[in-house]
Each structure stands twice: as structure tokens, then as C-alpha cells.
Amino acid sequence: MDSRVMRYFLLSFGILILIVIILYQGLPINPIHDFNHWVFDRHYRAALLPHPNDSVLLAYKSYFGGPDDHGSWTCIYAAGEFRSSSLPKAELLQRYATSTIRSVYGLKKIPVQILFPDEPAMWPLNYPLGDWWPDFSEQAKTATTTIYLVYAAEKRPFWGDLRCDD
Question: pTM score, two decimals?
């Protein structure tokens, strides 16, 4: 009787796995990316970043999707803040120089980066930061303080999710 129950269980489990695989093939998304994005966002928010005392949060942004180049087979999770501070750029860079957040799975540390939108530097193409900037470009033009973006981003495998190939 034990062997019949075991065979029934294995057969039922095998059929269930087959149904899940068939259904997954029809979906253009992979739910693991939603979960990973949520975890990455929580790691960023939980990080004790050394924001200056006079720093003001202008906006918080979070994103997951693909880089600008199609067929990259990567998915990117990014989280960041547009902030304003009276400190000069050099001091802001020094303040965040050693800051990191935990990766999605907590196995490595992701460095925190800073971008200054008024500099003629090229925004990284692999991240959605260029899409975030238009929301704040007018505010930055009239600002009397230093506007900057502090963010972290991590690349993960594509895993068949079409949202990562945009």
C-alpha cells in the first residue's frame, strides 16, 4: 500500500509540475523579477546611507526592466533618490564613496553611485536614470542648492521575462 501511495504522489506531483511549465511558457513575464525588485527596493530603503543633515529628499524612484539595448538578456533592478543639499559636489561624492547596499540575494554589496544632472557627463545607458530625470529637470534648473541622484542598480539574468527586453 505504501508503494501505491508513493506512485500516486509522484505521478500527481509530476503532472502538477508539467502543468506549471506549460502555463509558464505561455506567459511573457517571470514573477521572480517582481519579487527580486521588491527585495532590492527594501534593501535600498533599509540601507543607512550617509545623507547630509541638510539633504532634502525630492523624490524616490524604483525600477526594474531591461537596458536600452535589446537582446541583452539581462534584467536591471534600480532604486534611487533625487536629493538636494547645500554641500559642494566633491563633498557629496566623498560622503557616499564607501556606501553600499546588499544585493538581491544578499551575497554581495552593490556600490551606491551619485550623478549630478547639471554635469555634461553621459548618463549610463544600462539604467533607467535618463527616464527619471525629465521629472526633475525644471526643478534643477532653478535650484539654488546642489541637486543630485544617489542610486544603486543590479543586473540579474533575463529568465525569459519580456519586460526586461524593452
Answer: 0.73
